[in-house]
Design goal:
Mean pLDDT of chain A: 96
Number of helices of chain A: 7
Oligomer: heterodimer
Helix content of chain A: 25-40%
Number of helices of chain B: 22
Distance between the termini of chain A: 60 Å
CATH class of chain A: Alpha Beta
Low-confidence stretches of chain B: 1-11
CATH topology of the largest domain in chain B: Rossmann fold
Number of strands of chain A: 12
Number of strands of chain B: 10
Radius of gyration of chain A: 21 Å
Mean pLDDT of chain B: 94
Structural class of chain A: alpha/beta
Radius of gyration of chain B: 26 Å
Low-confidence stretches of chain A: none
Distance between the termini of chain B: 39 Å
Shape of chain A: globular
Shape of chain B: elongated
Chain lengths: 223, 480
């Protein structure tokens, strides 16, 4: 008999004569305390994220690339990793073409193995989209895919994320129901609620443990 | 007073380690400061009592429901993960789990492993197992990294290096990494970041734990603040997740309350910086992520705890650490005193099933039964009740215990004393005779009564019994 069978047999023996407990999940407990108006959603997400060292800026559909450029300029950032096949990636590239000077744009368009050293040590900033936001906890939802891979939001010291105000939901439960996560989980789904941090030494907060030291959220005011 | 604690008379490992820890002012202050702050943060995060209690009950019901269907859910999880392209392995013992991990690494001809935080891998002593086979297994959680550099074990399940202060870390980094000594916490973390980033880049395999394994979708959920969990599960070509069989939950929605309970109870955070949900390896066309994902499901005594309806509740645990943060004993003696992977109240109730109660006979009694652990537990494990149960399992006749290697403290003379005491209280005549003798012969009470009289004045019966006093009182008319 395999380890698997022995473990399952032991567990089944332990349940002998018992019945499964009913599913009494009460969704009110995870939704009712976390409900907001459209305006509150943005302010709550913003204040929670700012409380953990995130920079938040309201932007418009037309001018957000200018904001990106400005953020990079004030930080003296030399390059920016972007996803060329996404809509926001294309808009960014168009803007970059129009303004000649500026940090180098790096397209994430080949397997990580082909340029791991550069990705790990030389990329200074990245821009990604998001699949929504959560007001209750001040979180971004990232749904990495072949166009916008996982490491983009992890390796560079500065991560800039675009979030549509209209895609901020009250709480995690509502968002996962609305987007139907349970029926189509991607290989990797992420909630990001600030820059990387640690309090492992004397509980003193330090940012930039392994992931980005800085997280900037651009809220597209489309709501 | 302190000279009345004769250390040489203390027996057993727990006791001698506790005595040492209690005498270490630096250690005590490191823990006191950290636990006070963690308690305050948790209290602030659960400001609304009604909300908190509703959520705790829901958390308890979700875990109880999962356990009531555990074998079915494990099979469902395996089937879903397999569909998603994840390879599932089962291990009854830590030795088996280590062999599985080693085999996977060998198949990839790997020599460097980088590990996100995982208490189950601590249970397995995976680092030592792999090191003995010439494979470097490096911790990447900052706290775990510090502890590993110093050749130590974690002293807290969430904050592994909480027993050290910044100056101790500064000296350690200076000695082991050859960097300038700095007591600036930011600079210390940046030193760790640089050292570990190169390791993430080079690693052949990444190892992580799992906070919740979701049967419905075949998803491994991992919470963390640093990003080392994401690194370990994304950067190397192979990801191996190791977890206990109790971590499975039925539905994706079940993790919503559990996640909230976990991060608020552990650190007082509404959510951790990263919540990582992994449902498969890199898909065709994807540009990063591991080519292989493995899950090792470890039993290591859990199915034995599961066999007993009361002890089964230990498997509700979501490893938040709130019980140790609130424990007056843990705060004073620190995590290393327990001498096992899981310290504090939760350690006392899970460890016996893993290593046998005879190896940790003092743990169930190293508690004042104040009840704080049970009060704060996010999934409502009745820890004090389980500690009392283990105290009983400690003293039943060997072979009669339902816990692995119970009965280590069984004593025939103690049994005889209790038998006599019961007899005395059942027979009025014997009882009256005893009262008469105890009040008359009270001066004969022994002056030495084991450990009790090391720190207390010896007890002596009063000259007159309560019965006598009441009789006199009534004779005088019963006035007060």
């Amino acid at each position: 008999m395999s380890a698997r069978d022995r473990i399952l047999n032991k567990l089944r023996a332990g349940l002998n004569g018992t019945r499964p407990r009913p599913d009494d999940f009460d969704e009110a407990l995870v939704t009712r305390p976390w409900q907001y108006s459209a305006q509150e959603r943005v302010t709550r997400l913003r204040s929670l994220m700012e409380a953990v060292h995130t920079e938040v800026h309201p932007v418009t559909m037309a001018d957000w690339p200018v904001k990106v450029q400005e953020l990079l300029a004030t930080r003296n950032v030399g390059n920016l990793l972007y996803a060329p096949e996404t809509a926001h990636g294309r808009q960014l590239a168009r803007h970059w073409q129009a303004v000649t000077a500026g940090p180098t744009l790096l397209a994430y368009d080949r397997p990580a193995e082909d340029w791991k050293d550069q990705l790990f040590w030389q990329v200074e900033a990245s821009l990604t989209g998001t699949a929504g936001g959560i007001a209750a906890t001040g979180s971004l939802v990232l749904w990495p895919d072949r166009h916008e891979p996982r490491l983009m939001s992890l390796l560079p010291p500065l991560h800039i994320a675009l979030l549509r105000a209209s895609e901020i939901r009250d709480n995690l439960y509502e968002l996962m129901q609305e987007q139907g996560w349970a029926s189509e989980m991607p290989t990797n789904l992420l909630l990001v609620s600030g820059p990387s941090k640690t309090a492992d030494i004397e509980q003193v907060l330090a940012y930039g443990a392994h992931g980005p030291k800085e997280l900037v959220v651009l809220i597209l005011e489309d709501a | 007073m302190s000279e009345r604690i004769p250390a040489q008379n203390l027996t057993g490992d727990f006791r001698s380690r506790a005595a040492e820890a209690l005498a270490d002012g630096q250690l005590r202050s490191n823990f006191r400061v950290a636990m006070d702050s963690l308690m305050q943060k948790r209290a602030d995060a659960f400001a609304d009592e009604q909300e908190r209690e509703g959520l705790r009950e829901l958390g308890n019901h979700i875990k109880a429901r999962a356990l009531s269907r555990l074998p079915d859910l494990l099979e469902q999880l395996e089937a879903k993960l397999t569909d998603n392209g994840v390879q599932v392995h089962w291990a009854e013992t830590t030795e088996e789990a280590n062999r599985i991990v080693h085999r996977i690494i060998e198949q990839r001809k790997g020599s460097q492993v980088v590990k996100g935080k995982s208490m189950v891998s601590e249970e397995m002593e995976m680092n030592d197992y792999l090191a003995a086979r010439n494979i470097e297994c490096l911790e990447s959680d900052m706290g775990e990294y510090i502890v590993q550099l110093d050749g130590e074990k974690p002293s807290h399940i969430i904050m592994p290096a909480i027993h050290k202060n910044r100056f101790q870390v500064a000296r350690l980094f200076h000695d082991k990494l050859g960097v300038d000594e700095t007591d600036d916490v930011n600079e210390l973390i940046q030193i760790g970041r640089r050292a570990l980033r190169q390791k993430f880049l080079e690693a052949d395999v990444g190892v992580s734990g799992v906070n919740f394994a979701i049967a419905e979708t075949g998803t491994l959920l991992l919470v963390e603040n640093e990003g080392n969990g994401r690194m370990s599960t994304t950067a190397p070509p192979v990801h191996i997740a190791v977890t206990g069989i109790e971590k499975v939950v039925e539905n994706l929605r079940d993790v919503v309350p559990l996640l909230s309970l976990l991060t608020r109870s552990a650190l007082g955070q509404p959510i951790t910086t990263y919540v990582n949900m992994i449902s498969g390896p890199r898909q065709p066309g994807e540009l990063d992520g591991p080519e292989e994902v493995h899950l090792v499901l470890l039993d290591n005594g859990r199915s034995s705890a599961f066999a007993d309806a009361q002890l089964r509740q230990t498997l509700n645990c979501i490893r938040c650490g709130a019980c140790m943060n609130h424990c007056p004993v843990y705060t004073r003696v620190g995590g290393h005193t327990y001498g096992e992977v899981y310290p504090g109240p939760i350690g006392k109730i899970v460890t016996p099933h893993m290593v046998g109660l005879h190896k940790v006979p003092d743990h169930p009694s190293a508690s004042s039964l104040c009840g704080a652990c049970g009060e704060v537990c996010p999934v409502k494990i009745p820890i004090p009740e389980l500690l009392q149960r283990l105290r009983q399992e400690n003293v039943v006749a060997p072979g009669q215990s339902r816990v692995k290697d119970g009965g280590a403290k069984f004593s025939r003379s103690e049994r005889a004393v209790w038998w006599g005491w019961a007899l005395l209280n059942r027979s009025p005549r014997l009882y009256r005779w005893f009262l008469w003798a105890a009040t008359r012969l009270r001066k004969l009470t022994p002056r030495q009564l084991g450990p009790w009289t090391e720190n207390h004045a010896p007890p002596m019966p009063a000259a007159r019994s309560l019965h006598d006093l009441v009789r006199d009182h009534n004779k005088q008319g019963g006035r007060t």
